[in-house]
């Protein structure tokens, strides 16, 4: 689960990393008031989970009350589903550094990534200047040792005084990484402020990304899903039910079993020129949830529901029973294409036929059929309103 | 011959008294797998499918000389169970657990490496050599999917494996040994680490890799082929070609991040070393024929 910038910064600050003074606001009035208090210029930052906020115009340095208010209002009214803003003091920046901790799956270690040129996304750095990315592997049990932090500090060009500032920041980020079960803990940019009038420079986290391992949610606080993290109401509902779901805006609702197979069905629909309304998996622990799965699909008003499974534990006969029940209960008006194979498939075929479906056995044929139907006459495309 | 397991492998089942453990123990034995003992703390003295149950792995290994462990243990107890097996000297471990915490997966892989052991999974259906033995959960009774043969299969997925393996069989082939490395970001064993076994296996003529977006395991296979570690024909099928960037497609490991893991990069890596890449599942059989020089 990705956290918002303000939540990442809270976690950083709790371990002793300096962050800019800031206020979280949920309306334009409050944002302008916060900006007044922080003084101008200050920075207004949309709290959304997408990357590239700067380029998308979701962050701006504002110079006065009216600008702050107008910009904040435009963000809340804009297309990016902005629900809160972080208004922050502007920092007197000397240089910017990239710093992150993630895992190295091959080496089976944690991995610190650093770059003397911060502010650029790591994806872009990896593309344009991979040699500039510094790497330090850290044993996950021993933890970050001071020499490793010093290695990076001097490689980043800090002098002895600067290294004394940098080492504790990296040590704090390590504590965040481990204690939060992070997939990624990233400070980009890490500001190095200008030293002036006898005041030494400081290190301040300009931005924060913190992605918590979903598999460790059980031991992390606040694991309840929040609407603001999801692309749509249906995605949010699916998450509450523990059903893997991705929102798209096409014609065909995928109601499939197994992550790998569902991903391939998604590909095949695209190959055939069809479009996907949603990705939904009702395999694994959810294979008895066909009714709920179909209900979620129907909320997208799809032109077709495409069911493809090839289950082992997720038994075909039980999934077919669920589909028959869902059809009886929800009476979908859109056509359903079903290709259900695996454990118990003979019984599944009989059940589907009794429910008025024509069972298919070949994934690609099922996809082609669904794509054809999705282009069919409008009478097929009315869908069911729930 | 097969890789990883055969009829002589002495398998111990951790979590044997649970619903899934008992159910799949029966199927493993039906296929011919030698299941010698089970472990469930607190349940020593019971029997499951005639297999004696012990409190601890140490005791079970002392009594029955098990050399492989099959784990039907929930994700949050998997680290403990894997370490218990490693500590008892077991060097082949398969865990199906879907949801092992990431940092613990790192610890598991690190420990396995330090013990010269192999942990397969989590988030996998396991390992099967059709007609011989399995550790895991495969519907081997469906002949059109799990027919014995001479094609090695490595996969990150479960249901997709049924789909693609059926296409291997439809192409006129069968499966020698199938290794499900699993769909997690940090699997215990990586694709490339099985290549020397497939290269050495006289009963494997070619290998099919069922990969997907995310991570660098497919690229590592291409590197190993370039280095001459694996010289047999290889056919790859990749899921997630059209997946949008930044979305996690089902499996925890199936996401492009940090500029790494796109299917386009993986296909380019395979093609550079002469592996054949299938666009669609049904092409896998055709490409195998092509790779093995068989007229269709």
What's this entry about, in short?
The complex is a heterodimer of chains A (386) and B (296). With 386 residues, chain A is an alpha+beta fold. Chain A has helices at residues 5-14, 28-38, 65-77, 122-128, 146-155, 160-179, 233-240, 259-271, 290-298, 316-330, 345-354, 363-374, and strands spanning 22-25, 42-46, 59-62, 85-89, 93-104, 109-115, 134-138, 182-193, 203-205, 209-212, 245-247, 252-254, 276-280, 304-311, 336-342.
Q: Can you put this structure into words, describing what you see?
A:
The complex is a heterodimer of chains A (386) and B (296). Chain A is of the alpha+beta class and 386 residues long. Chain A folds into three domains: 21-89, Dna Ligase, domain 1, CATH 3.30.1490; 93-221, ATP-grasp fold, B domain (D-amino Acid Aminotransferase, Chain A, domain 1), CATH 3.30.470; 242-374, Rossmann fold, CATH 3.40.50. Chain A is built from twelve helices and 15 strands. Chain A has helices at residues 5-14, 28-38, 65-77, 122-128, 146-155, 160-179, 233-240, 259-271, 290-298, 316-330, 345-354, 363-374; strands at residues 22-25, 42-46, 59-62, 85-89, 93-104, 109-115, 134-138, 182-193, 203-205, 209-212, 245-247, 252-254, 276-280, 304-311, 336-342. In chain A, strands 5, 6, 7, 8, 9 and 10 form a six-stranded antiparallel beta sheet that branches. In chain A, strands 11-13-12-14-15 form a five-stranded mixed beta sheet, with helices on both faces. Chain A has a four-stranded antiparallel beta sheet with strand order 1-4-2-3, covered by helices on one side. In chain A, helix 2 (28-38) packs antiparallel against helix 3, helix 9 (290-298) packs across helix 10 (316-330) and helix 10 runs parallel beside helix 11. The model of chain A is unreliable at 378-386 (pLDDT under 50). Chain B is α/β, with parallel strands linked by helices. Chain B has two domains: 1-123, 3-Layer(aba) Sandwich (Rossmann fold); 139-296, 3-Layer(aba) Sandwich (Rossmann fold), CATH 3.40.50.261. Helices cover 32% and strands 23% of the residues of chain B. Chain B contains nine helices and 14 strands. In chain B, strand 5 (68-71), helix 3 (78-87) and strand 6 form a beta-alpha-beta unit. In chain B, helix 3 (78-87) runs parallel beside helix 4, helix 5 crosses helix 9 and helix 7 runs parallel beside helix 8. The model of chain B has no long low-confidence stretch (mean pLDDT 95).
């Amino acid at each position: 689960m990705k956290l918002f910038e303000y939540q990442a910064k809270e976690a950083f600050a709790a371990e002793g990393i300096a962050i800019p003074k800031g206020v979280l606001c949920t309306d334009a009035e409050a944002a302008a008031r916060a900006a007044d208090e922080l003084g101008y210029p200050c920075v207004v930052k949309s709290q959304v989970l997408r990357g590239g906020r700067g380029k998308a115009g979701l962050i701006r340095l504002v110079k006065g009350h009216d600008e702050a208010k107008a910009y904040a209002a435009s963000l809340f009214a804009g297309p990016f589903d902005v629900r809160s803003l972080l208004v922050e003091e502007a920092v007197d920046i000397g240089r910017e550094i990239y710093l992150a901790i993630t895992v190295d799956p091959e080496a089976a270690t944690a991995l610190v990534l650093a770059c003397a040129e911060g502010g650029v996304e790591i994806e872009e750095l990896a593309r344009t200047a991979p040699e500039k990315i510094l790497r330090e592997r850290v044993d996950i049990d021993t933890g970050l040792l001071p020499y490793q932090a010093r290695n990076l500090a001097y490689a980043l060009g800090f002098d002895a005084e600067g290294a004394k500032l940098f080492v504790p920041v990296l040590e704090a980020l390590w504590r965040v990484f481990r204690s939060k079960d992070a997939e990624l803990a990233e400070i980009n940019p890490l500001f190095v402020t200008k030293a002036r009038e006898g005041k030494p420079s400081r290190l301040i986290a300009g931005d924060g990304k913190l992605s918590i391992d979903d598999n460790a949610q059980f031991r992390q606080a606040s694991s309840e899903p929040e609407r603001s993290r999801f692309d749509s109401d249906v995605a949010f509902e699916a998450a509450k039910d523990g059903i893997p779901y991705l929102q798209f805006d096409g014609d065909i609702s995928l109601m499939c079993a197994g992550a790998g197979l569902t991903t391939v069905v998604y590909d095949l629909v695209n190959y055939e020129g069809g479009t996907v309304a949603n990705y939904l998996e009702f395999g694994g622990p959810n294979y008895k949830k066909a009714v709920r799965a179909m209900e979620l699909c129907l909320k997208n008003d799809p032109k077709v529901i495409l069911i493809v499974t090839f289950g082992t534990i997720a038994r075909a006969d039980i999934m077919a029973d669920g589909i028959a029940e869902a059809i009886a209960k929800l009476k979908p008006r859109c056509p359903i294409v079903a290709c259900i194979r695996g454990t118990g498939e003979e019984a599944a075929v009989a059940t589907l036929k009794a429910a008025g479906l024509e069972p298919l056995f070949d994934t690609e044929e099922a996809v082609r059929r669904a794509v054809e139907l999705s282009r069919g006459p409008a009478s097929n495309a009315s869908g069911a309103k729930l | 011959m097969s890789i990883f397991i055969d009829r002589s492998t002495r398998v111990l089942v951790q979590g044997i008294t649970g619903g899934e453990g008992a159910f799949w123990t029966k199927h493993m034995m039906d296929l011919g797998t030698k299941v010698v003992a089970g472990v469930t703390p607190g349940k020593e003295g019971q029997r499951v499918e005639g297999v004696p149950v012990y409190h601890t792995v140490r005791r079970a290994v002392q009594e029955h000389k098990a050399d492989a462990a099959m784990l039907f243990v929930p994700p949050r107890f998997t680290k403990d169970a894997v370490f218990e097996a490693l500590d008892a000297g077991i060097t082949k471990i398969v865990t199906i657990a879907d949801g092992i915490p990431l940092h613990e997966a790192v610890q598991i892989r690190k420990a396995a490496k330090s013990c010269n052991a192999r942990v397969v999974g989590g988030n996998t259906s396991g390992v099967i050599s059709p007609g011989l033995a399995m550790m895991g959960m495969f519907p081997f009774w469906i002949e059109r999917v799990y027919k014995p043969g001479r094609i090695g299969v490595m996969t990150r997925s479960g249901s997709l494996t049924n789909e693609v393996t059926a296409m291997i069989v439809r192409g006129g082939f069968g499966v020698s040994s199938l290794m499900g490395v699993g769909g997690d970001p940090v699997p215990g064993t990586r694709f490339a680490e099985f290549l020397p076994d497939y290269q050495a296996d006289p009963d494997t003529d070619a290998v099919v890799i069922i990969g997907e977006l995310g991570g660098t395991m497919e690229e590592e296979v291409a590197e190993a082929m370039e280095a001459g570690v694996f010289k047999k024909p290889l056919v790859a099928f990749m899921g997630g070609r059209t997946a949008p960037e930044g979305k996690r497609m089902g499996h925890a490991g199936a996401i492009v991040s940090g500029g790494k893991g796109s299917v386009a990069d993986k296909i380019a890596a395979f093609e550079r070393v002469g592996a054949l890449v299938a666009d669609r599942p049904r092409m896998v059989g055709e490409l195998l024929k092509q790779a093995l020089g068989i007229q269709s």
